[in-house]
Amino acid sequence: MIKNLVIVESPAKAKTIEKYLGKDFTVLSSIGHIRSIAKKSKDGKDAIDVKNGFKTTYEIDPEKKKVVAELKKAVKTASNVWLATDEDREGESIAWHLCEVLGLDTKKTKRIVFHEITKNAIDEAVKNPKTINMSLVKAQQARQILDRIVGFELSPVVWQKVPGGKSAGRVQSPAVKLLVEREKEIENFQTESSFKITATFNYKGEEFSAEVPKKFTSESNAHDFLKKLIGAEFKVSNISESPALRKPSAPFTTSTLQQEANAKLSFSTKATMASAQKLYQAGKITYMRTDSITLSNQALSNIASHIEKKYGKEYLEVKNFKTKVASAQEAHEAIRPTEIELEKASSNEYDQKLYNLIRNRTIASQMSPAKIEKTLVSIDISTLDDKFEAKGEVILFEGFLKVYKNIKSDEKILPKLKAGDGLGMESAIAKETFARAPSRYSEGSLVKKLEDLGIGRPSTYSTIISTIQTRGYAEKGQSEGQDRQAKELRLVNGIISAGEITEKTGSDKGKLIPTPPGEVLTEFLNDYFSDVVDYGFTAKIEEDFDAIANDELERNKMLDNFYVPFHKLIEKSNKIDRKEVSKVREIGIDPKTKLPIYARYGRFGPTFQLGDGEGENKPQFAPLPKGTKISTVTLEEALHAFQLPRTVGQTPEGSLIQAHIGRYGPYIKYDNVSVSIKDYDPYSITLEESLKLIEEKKKYEASKKIAEFEDGIRVLNGRFGPYVTDGKKNVKVPKETDPKSITSTQALEMLKKAPVSKRRFRKKAN
C-alpha cells in the first residue's frame, strides 16, 4: 500500500525530490509525455475532428506503455496521488493527460508546483496543493492542435510543390524567413570604402593614440590631409571629463540565457537547454523555462548576504527587477542558483560552465554599478581646422564588473594632460575601411529577434533552431572569411609611404545560413501562404494562446478563426504549378550552342541547366560550384561547370578516366567504377593523381573481400564488421562465425532468411 504517490516528469527529478519527502512518499516518473495526438481516430478519420469542436484523439506513445502500466498499478494502491509535473503550460498538460489515462479526477487530484527542487520549496508546495488549471491545459491544447493542423495539411503541399521541401511549421517557417531576408540584405548590400586617419602622439615619454572624427572619401583626400600634417604643431585645446555608470543586467530568462551562452560559451540553444535541464533536475538552479526576471525575497536576502560577506558592503545594491513582458506567465522567478554559496554544481564541464554563467549573472544583478570616468581630449592642428580626438576611460570602481563583465571594455588610459600642452606626433596612418554588410544571425541573435517579434516562446526556440537545420533549411557557416586588400598610407618622419594590408572579411563561422531549399520554401510560402510566415500574424497567435491561458478567449473560437481561412488556401493549392515554384534564373547564353543557361533548384540541389529541353535535344545539367548561390552565380561560373565531365586520360588497360562532380562531391569514373576525389579539383586533377587514387581504391576493395561466390554473392569486411551481400541485401555475420569459413550454400541461406529492408516512402498529399 502506497500512502502518497508523487508523479513527476523525469527520473532525475524523481530521485532528487524523493530525498526531501521522506518515507511516507513514493516518487515515480512518467518520463515526459505519455500521450500525443494520434495519426488517425479509431474510425480511421483524422485525429482532430474540426467539425466537432476540434475534438482530438490521443494515443499512448508505444514506448510509454510499460511506464503507464506501472503507474496504473501504483495508483490502484495509493491513498493519495500528487501530480508534480513542471509548472508551465506543458507541465499542466502532462498532468491532465496523466489524469485521463490513470483515471484520476482532475477536480480532486492534488497538483503541486515548485520552481526549484529544494526541501523548503517542496515542503511549501505539499502544504499548499492545487488542482489542475484547465485554462493552461486548453492553451497548450490549442498550440498542439494548431501546430498539428499546419504540419499535417501544409507539409504535404510543400512535398508536392516545393523542390527540396520537407515540411512547414507555424514557427519554424517564419524563423527560416528571417534568415532568408537577412541573406538578401547581404546580397544587395553595396559596400563602400573610406579612409580613417589615426595618429600616435607622445607626451613626456607616454604614447597614446587619437583619430580624426571624420572619414575621408578617397585616397587622394587622405593623402592631402597627411601631407598637411608634415611640420605641423599639435597642442591640447580642450579636455572634458564626465562620470558614467554601467549597470548590471537582470538575472537570466530562458531567452537571455540562450543568447548569452551562445555568445560567451559558444553553446547552441539545444546544448544550453540540455545543460540547464540537468542542473534543474539536480536541484542546482530554479526552473529554466521562464519569462520572468524577478527574484524572490528569500533569494534576494541570500544573495545580498553573500555579496556583503565576500566583496564588502560597498558592492551591494539590492534591486527588484520587474518583468516587462506582458505575457510572462511561466515560472515565477528568473533562472538562478538554488544555493548562491554553491560554486561547484556538476562534474560535467559544460554543465558547470553554464552554472558559473547563471551564478555570476545572478550575483552581479544585485551588485553596485561600475563607476567610470570618461575623458575626451581635443587636439589642435596648426595647419588645419580639423582636430584629432583621443578618448579614454578609467574604471574608478569595479562594482558588478568584478564578477560579471557583460561588455567588451574599451578602457584606454590617457596621460595626465591639460589644455595648452604641446604634443609630439610619432606617426599617422590613413587606413582604408569598408562599410559592413548586415551580419548573419547566430543562434543567439536569432533567439533575440524571435523574442522581439513575439514569435514562439523561448522554451521552444531550441527545438525550432534544431529543426530548421535538421530539415536542411539552414546550416552553420564554416568559413573564416576571405582575404581582402586594404590600402594604407603611413606618415613617419615627414615621409608618406603607400602600401596594402591583408585582412579577413565575410566570416560566417557559426552563423546560420539559409540553404536553397530554405529560400525556395520561403518564397513559396510568401506567395501562397503569406499568413503562415507573417511575423505579426504569428505573434498574434501567441497572444491568443495567452488569452486562452488567462481565460479571456475560448479555445475553439481561436482555432476556428485560424482554420477556416487557412484551409481554404490548402484547398486552392492543387492549382499551384510546381514549375512556377521552382527557383529558376536565366543567367545567359552558351556561346557554343547558343542555348540559354539557367540556374535552378533541382531534384538533387542547386544546378545549372543548359537548354530548355525543347524538341529532341535533352537539357544538360551541372552542379553549382560550392559556395555559390542561384541568385548570384555568373555565366562564367556556369560555362566552367559545363566543362565536366572532363577526360583525364586512360588506365594502363585502356579504360577512359573522366572527372565529374556529383551529388556527393567530385569523383573520377572508369569502367563504371567511381572513385571519390574530394581533396582534388575535378577541373585540374592529373592522370598521375587519378591512377594513384584508382590503385588505392583497388587495394581497399581487395582488403574488404573475404570470399566471392556465384551470382554476385560475396563475404566482405565492412565498417561494422563482416557481412554477406548479393548487392541488394546485406546480412551481418554472427560474432561466433568465422567469416572465412562461410560456404556458398551458407551465404545463400543467410540471404534468404534476411528480412527485406524497410524503405521509406514519402507520404503523398491527398
Structural description of this entry:
Helix 9 (about 270-280) crosses helix 11. Among the domains are: about 1-130, Rossmann fold (3-Layer(aba) Sandwich), CATH 3.40.50.140; about 195-245 and about 370-435, Topoisomerase I, domain 3, CATH 2.70.20.10; about 255-370, Topoisomerase I, domain 4 (Orthogonal Bundle), CATH 1.10.290; about 585-640, no CATH class; about 645-705, no CATH class; about 710-755, no CATH class. The longest helix is centred in the first third of the chain and has 28 residues, at about 135-160. Strands 9, 10, 11, 12, 13, 14, 16 and 17 form an 8-stranded antiparallel beta sheet that branches. A 4-stranded parallel beta sheet has the order 2-1-7-8. The protein has a 4-stranded antiparallel beta sheet with strand order 19-20-21-22. Strand 29 and strand 30 (about 730) form a beta hairpin. The protein has about 775 residues and is an alpha+beta fold. It contains 20 helices and 30 strands.
Shape: globular
**What is the CATH topology descriptor of the domain at 2-132?**
Rossmann fold
The percent range for helix content is: 25-40%
* Portion in beta strands: 15-25%
Parts with pLDDT < 50 across at least 5 consecutive residues: 759-766
* C-alpha end-to-end distance: 53 Å
The helix count comes to 20
Please count the beta strands (DSSP E, at least 2 residues each): 30
CATH class of the domain at 2-132: Alpha Beta
Content-based structural category: alpha+beta
**CATH architecture label of the domain at 2-132:** 3-Layer(aba) Sandwich
- Rounded mean pLDDT is 90
